[in-house]
Amino acid sequence: DTAVSQTPKYLVTQMGNDKSIKCEQNLGHDTMYWYKQDSKKFLKIMFSYNNKELIINETVPNRFSPKSPDKAHLNLHINSLELGDSAVYFCASSQGSLGAFFGQGTRLTVV
Amino acid sequence: GENVEQHPSTLSVQEGDSAVIKCTYSDSASNYFPWYKQELGKGPQLIIDIRSNVGEKKDQRIAVTLNKTAKHFSLHITETQPEDSAVYFCAASAGGTSYGKLTFGQGTILTVHP
Questions:
Q1: Interface list for A 65-84 with B (CB within 8 A)
Q2: Among A45, A78, A104, which Cα is nearest to B100's?
């Protein structure tokens, strides 16, 4: 009964490949997010999305794109992967005035 | 945009001691301040939060204080236990339609020695 679940947990891929990370939340929240945690543990928001609005952090390369098939899912697609994309990616969700609830993370390693 | 500074980066205490982590923020529009605990290999877990209309909030061994004028807020953990060892993050949000849109501090690695 995991609240926010991501797959896969680990992803190792070569430079130049295209990959996707899936996220699902069963909390009934109306807003979902993707965060990136770098090697120094710094957490930074990449996207926030609800059924009305997609807000993109301006520092995120356009190789990254969120796709939401429905309210409970927000997948992250990454094209032409680069070494610098290696990080842990977290999906999160929130509702109203509650803070964000995070998934377990996907550790992406680009070789 | 918002900038959140967190100190110290590492904190080592003996079991039973208190631990204090401090954060400052820059954007006066921020009105929601959560704290997260992240254990190894896991996602950040919300442990306590405070809103700008409140100066202090307590939940068992954990308390948060907020000084809106000075733009700083703190996490206090009393009677620390080894299982409190983790990375702690403060964060700030302007709330509105997106309380989960957070700007995080750099994190504090807390180690509680038995």
A1: none
A2: A45
Rg over alpha carbons for chain A, rounded to the nearest Å, is: 13
* Torsion angle, alpha carbons of B39, B72, B103, B51, to 10: 90
Question: What does the pLDDT look like over B43-85, one tens digit per residue?
Answer: 999 999 999 888 999 999 999 999 999 999 999 999 999 999 9
Residues A43-74: tens digit of each pLDDT: 999 998 987 778 878 789 999 999 988 889 99
Considering only CB atoms, B34 lies closest to which of A50, A53, A99, namely A99
Whether A3 contacts chain B with CB within 8 A: no
Report CA-CA distances (Å) from B65 to A96, B23, B35, B49, B53.
23, 10, 11, 10, 11
Residues of B with CB below 8 A from A101's CB?
46, 100
pLDDT band for A1, please (50, 70, 90 cuts). Answer: low
